[in-house]
Backbone:
């Protein structure tokens, strides 16, 4: 990846100085995922908590299959208030890794800058919990958020759903479920490099066998963890892989972004095109020279700053509608 001719020069310089424990699917097994998760927890423990007045609270609600303990991490503006817009967030991690805490700084920033409530769902992970468990957890958390809107001070007419990578795919699937089950009503979807298509048949999914963060092999591993031997088959649900959805009409306005040098590029391009053709107002951004997660790994570049500011602006406009 460092040698790719299209790589942004600032990102190239940052990668040469950066050491990140990248998930290596070539040596990973289903059994070794626990070690990767433990390493992520150690890394997160070394990151200072955000210095902010934002109130962060964990709520525990029943899982959709009847078990207790679905955790929702709620971020609220300091002080009392009502009528806040709400951003329901789904973290990334390739369907196999991740926790809401890894996005604390980002989500606190949304609360501070946009004056909104954020709810982040700690969905259960594959392979222990294959499809449909993760998306059903995400949908259950969205339903709980809507049902407790008055308690949280939320204006339900300004409810947005978003996520990054696997979280972006789960966010898109959650919005599909909300449409097909008759609610909650979602006003906007913010999909950041979303993981949408288990078939892995696009040119970009074949092109990036090497990447700074998430390559073809890792993507195949993540989809296999979620779907097992159904991955790529004819019977995969659109609630697992939203690119499979035949009908995208009636969905809320969308924002999608993706980097040029990543496996998700072409499936995200196609999803944006199909949304527009289905009558869904859609804003799309392709970041030249970027790779998957570039703005999080190397934030102090012009391209990273532009990507982050563009997302803030899009969500701000959605909340003002």
Residues:
């Amino acid at each position: 990846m460092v040698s790719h001719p299209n790589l942004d020069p600032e990102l190239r310089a940052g990668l040469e100085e950066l050491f990140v424990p990248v998930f290596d699917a070539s040596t990973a097994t289903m059994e070794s995922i626990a070690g990767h998760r433990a390493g992520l927890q150690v890394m997160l423990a070394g990151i200072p908590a955000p210095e902010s007045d934002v109130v962060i609270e964990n709520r525990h609600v029943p899982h959709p299959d009847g078990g207790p303990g679905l955790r929702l991490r709620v971020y609220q503006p300091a002080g009392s208030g009502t009528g806040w817009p709400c951003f329901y967030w789904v973290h990334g991690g390739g369907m196999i890794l991740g926790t809401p805490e890894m996005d604390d700084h980002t989500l606190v920033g949304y609360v501070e800058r946009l004056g909104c409530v954020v709810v982040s769902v700690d969905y259960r992970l594959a392979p222990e919990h294959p499809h449909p468990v993760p998306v059903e957890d995400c949908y259950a958390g969205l339903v709980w958020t809507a049902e407790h809107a008055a308690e949280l001070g939320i204006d339900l007419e300004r409810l947005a759903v978003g996520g990054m990578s696997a979280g972006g795919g789960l966010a898109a699937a959650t919005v599909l479920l909300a449409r097909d089950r008759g609610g909650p009503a979602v006003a906007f979807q913010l999909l950041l490099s979303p993981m949408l298509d288990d078939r892995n048949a696009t040119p970009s999914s074949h092109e990036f066998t090497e990447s700074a963060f998430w390559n073809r092999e890792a993507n195949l591993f993540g989809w296999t963890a979620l779907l097992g031997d159904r991955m790529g088959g004819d019977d995969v649900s659109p609630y697992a892989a939203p690119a499979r959805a035949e009908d995208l009409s009636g969905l809320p306005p969308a924002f999608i972004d993706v980097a040029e040098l990543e496996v998700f590029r072409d499936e995200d391009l196609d999803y944006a095109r199909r949304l527009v053709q289905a009558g869904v107002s859609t804003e799309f951004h392709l970041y030249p020279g970027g790779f998957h997660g570039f703005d999080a790994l190397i934030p102090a570049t012009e391209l990273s700053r532009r990507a982050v500011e563009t997302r803030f602006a899009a969500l701000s406009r959605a909340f003002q509608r």
Notes: The chain has one domain: 9-320. Residues 9-320 form a domain with the Rossmann fold fold (CATH 3.40.50.1820). Strands lie at 55-61, 70-76, 84-90, 117-122, 154-164, 188-192, 254-261, 282-291.
